[in-house]
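Collaborator request, handled under Task 6.
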Amino acid sequence: MSVTSDFYLARVAQCAREAGETDLANVRDRCLRAKAAWQAMADRVLMGEADRKKQAADKAAHQERLFG
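Structure tokens returned to the collaborator:
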């Protein structure tokens, strides 16, 4: 199963929301650490998605040059 960037970004938003809602420093810190981890994963997936789109566009352009 492939997880999209939307999943990771939803977790980032959830952690940010939970960090903002709590009065406990240790819970807020945990949420902010989790948010940073989810953001790092989202960034990697977003980069991969962008690379795949670029490769597809490059391949299509190459095919167009070859076959008109």
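The cover message to the collaborator said: "The longest helix spans residues 25-67. The chain has a mean pLDDT of 95. Please let us know whether this matches your experimental observations."
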